[in-house]
Amino acid sequence: MLIKKEHALALLNAKSQEEKGSACQITIKAEEDPYLELELQNLLEQGSSPIEYVLTYWGRNLVYLMEEMIQKGLLKHPSEWDERFRWIGSEVIAMIDAAIRSGNLTGELTFKPLAERGLAEERHEEKKGWFKEINEYAKAIYDIYQKAKPRLEISRELGRYIASIPPGPAETSTLPVHGRNLEIMESMRLISFSVPNSDVYTLSGLGQAVQKTIQTMAPSLGTIINEDYMYALLKVLDSGIEALTTQELEVLQELAFIDAEGNLLPAGEHLLEVYRLWNEREYRPVKTFNLETLDEEILIGLEKVWEKHKENPEILATAEEIVHYLLEKPLKEYKHLKEFYGRMLNQAMGYQKKEELKKKWAELFTVEDLFKHFWEKGNEWYEKLFDTVMESLYSLESFNLIVSEVDEKKGKLIYKFTPHGVEVLKDIKERGVREITATGVKAVTITKTEFGAPNYNWYEEGVKEGLVGGGYPTKSGELYERLAYAIKRIPHLTRFELMVLHKIPEYGMFLEELFKEFDETLKEEVQYAVNKLEARYILDVLPNNGLRLTEPGKLIKKALSGVPEGIADPINPLIVRILQAIKQVGNLYVKEKRVRILPKNWEEALRISGLDKETFEKELAVARLAGFIGRTSIHESGLEILEALELLNK
User: Fold this and answer.
1) Among 193, 393, 398, 607, which is least packed, fewest CB within 10 Å?
2) 445 contacts: CB under 8 Å, gap ≥ 6
């Protein structure tokens, strides 16, 4: 949806002619472009002749809104607008959508651009203070956007342009301009621009489907995609090739949508996806992925341990063996881990002297020396290192990159790669160890939505991490995008991530407000926690920096509401396996909202969990401390964790 100065004047002109009882006639070809674009947006429709235009129901509603806003002084008359001013565009719709999902609050990032368009205002509420929120006009425009179904008509010339441009994300300044192609594309919702200033563009989910169709078809006609072609293709699926008219059959075959027998060709498959997105508007949710440098080092270490196992079968890929790998590795080989250890020290100790850490890093030669310096009492340094490795192993298992199981001969818990883990390890070897942030991956995953383009800082993260480049997702970007939707997530929260989650309401908080809940020296740690929460699909960070809990996130927060914040990993994949095992062998009591387990069934629960006895008892003790499990039953909070598990992987 796009309303610039020329579109607004065209709508007002059509309204004026309607009041006189006639249609708006276009006699000069050069003046017709905005009218054609408004027709594609379902705001105007042709009258009794091709040069006549009349308002649609939705176009009339939009004009009434605009006139009322002008009358109230919220908006200047379109004749006074700058030619480049975009009253409505994909970025404006995205800002309104994010505000609605934030309880109508705009946040600092988007308040000014929305207010400049007459769509946001400051409101005072007694005892609560001032709020920056969208007004009723913004909600009405959003309603029109939702209900005014655009047309879809791609000419051969426009098709060439769409096929030639990078799908994004990329900086808007790199987008080639050719005639009014961009205005036409935005009118059909094929391209999106970033919040708040349109610095980044991407083809929308519909636009990418259209591009794939064009790139696989035979664009031999003047019009290469339209609604009639899509309906004809549906007839083939529903009733076979015999249901087509002679003209429909010729068109579908000439454009390479079907073969002579009526079988779908690649272009036809893509055109069906175009129809689904255009007609049903069913877009996937925005999911993302995250890896820290220590997680990647652990994956490398896990492979090294398995290589040692080939030479000496006595060596197994246990947590202890991975710790030994880190101790043996010269510190100079992975100095990029210093930031990770700095965050860990801050989280664990409230440690403020980052300069001291940097100094010690320059002086020390091994990880062992580093841990001994900060945890000198007794053998605590080794326990801290072991806990750090375990936290990473939990995280990797929660993202379905490794799996833990009991070795049959030794009876110890060992770790193995999943197919997804093998893919990630290959990427690390090819492109090096570096942070894979949730915002960087989201720069790729958000492009498949209806009007989503990554914020500029998301885009920059994607470029820095090698996930985006030259207007395309890289091979690495495509990998992490696919993993964001392919992995089976298992709930996992560290102690610090739980502290952050406790501060976040269901909606209505913004990232800058969350930072203020913690000491300013912990801003980096909070940002990393937000990354993990978003990658685990517990939290959604909106384009206006609004924070909104997902449905599984709401359940997980509720289940953990009474958990003491001192527990290192209050929920992790091993605890989840224990909960699943107990539920399988226990009896559900619906009224009490708990599952009871008979004493004789504990051995069976141990077997089903796939854990060794020592690990089972250790994690069971943590689960009891967290309140998920009592002496003989799973409590309601434990059942909520299992419900969240289902939602995470629905």
Assistant:
1) 607
2) 286, 287, 288, 481, 484, 485
Crossing angle of helices 613-626/602-609, nearest 10°?
100
Residue 330 pLDDT more than 60? no
Residues 424 and 330 in one domain: yes
Dihedral class, residue 489 (left if φ above 0, else alpha if ψ from -120 to 50, else beta): beta
Instruction: Describe the crossing of helices 367-374 and 319-328 by its angle, rounded to 10 degrees.
Output: 100
Pair 309, 243 in one domain: no
Please classify residue 329 by burial: count the beta carbons closer than 10 Å to its beta carbon, then call 0-12 exposed, 13-18 middle and 19+ buried. Answer: middle
* Lookup result for tokens 């976040």: 504
Length of the chain (residues): 650
Q: What is the mean pLDDT of residues 129-152?
A: 95
Q: What total of structural domains would you count in the chain? A: 4
* Angle of helix 338-349 versus helix 523-535 axis, rounded to 10: 100
Residue 474 predicted with pLDDT over 80: yes
Span 462-490, average pLDDT: 97
Gap between the Cα atoms of 220 and 154, Å rounded: 12
Residue 95 · residue 195 · CB < 8 Å: yes
Q: Which two tokens stand for residue 79?
A: 């004749």
Helix (H) or strand (E) holding 224: strand 223-226
Owning domain of residue 68? 3-88
Distance CA 241, CA 250 (A): 11
Is residue 181 within a helix (H) or strand (E), and if so which, with residue range?
A: helix 181-187
Give which of 533, 612, 551 is closest to 578, Cα–Cα.
612
Q: In the 3-class helix/strand/coil scheme, how is 269-334 assigned residue by residue?
A: HHHHHHHHHHHHCCCCCCCCCCECHHHHHHHHHHHHHHHHHHHCCCCCCCHHHHHHHHHHCCHHHH
Query: Which pLDDT tens digit goes with each residue over 276-305?
Result: 999 999 899 999 999 998 899 899 999 999
Distance of alpha carbon 290 from alpha carbon 441, whole angstroms: 8
Q: How many CB atoms lie within 10 A of CB 129?
A: 8
Query: What distance in Å separates the CA atoms of residue 380 and residue 401, rounded to the nearest whole number?
Result: 29
Give the amino acid at 585: V
Instruction: Compute the Cα dihedral for 439, 443, 449, 450 and give only its sign.
Output: positive
3-state secondary structure 570-608: CECHHHHHHHHHHHHHCEEECCCCEEECCHHHHHHHHHH
User: Does pLDDT of 524 surpass 90?
Assistant: no
Residues 263 and 365 in one domain: no
Token pair of 602 as six digits:
């504990």
Q: Is residue 342 part of a domain?
A: yes
Based on the domain organization, do 299 and 268 belong to the same domain?
Answer: no
Do 416 and 514 fall within a single domain? no
